[in-house]
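Priority: medium. Attachment 1 of 2:
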């Protein structure tokens, strides 16, 4: 007797509702911030230790760090910027939903759209500043 159910779940064929995508990204952004925490601590230490170390900190964005090019350093920082912004805005969204106690599907969807839009627009703006576009 053969079942018509698939033996393996193909996650690329499943479409998630937008609030689920925001929730998954909220978890992913938290994990990304946790994984990159040593890099953040190193940047913070180097930026504050002395004038010479601040020069090293500034040079990391212009010349890179060791064999890592400056472009990659900036991309990692951009990923951190997105992670922080998305995680914070999604966290505010969750607090709002907890306080409201009457969130409908439509409110959940519209707040997910706002969360994605605000975090992406702010990331693009800060990324443009990071990459020297203004």
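Attachment 2 of 2:
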């Amino acid at each position: 007797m053969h079942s018509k159910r698939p033996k393996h779940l193909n996650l690329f064929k499943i479409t998630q509702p937008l609030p689920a995508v925001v929730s998954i990204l909220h978890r992913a952004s938290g994990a990304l911030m946790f994984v990159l925490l040593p890099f953040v601590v190193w940047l913070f230490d180097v930026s504050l230790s002395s004038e010479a170390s601040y020069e090293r900190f500034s040079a990391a964005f212009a010349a890179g760090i060791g064999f890592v090019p400056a472009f990659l350093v900036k991309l990692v920082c951009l990923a951190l910027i997105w992670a922080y912004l998305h995680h914070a805005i999604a966290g505010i969204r969750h607090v709002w939903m907890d306080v409201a106690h009457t969130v409908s599907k439509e409110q959940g969807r519209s707040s997910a759209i706002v969360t994605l839009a605000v975090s992406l627009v702010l990331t693009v703006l800060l990324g443009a500043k990071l990459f020297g576009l203004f």
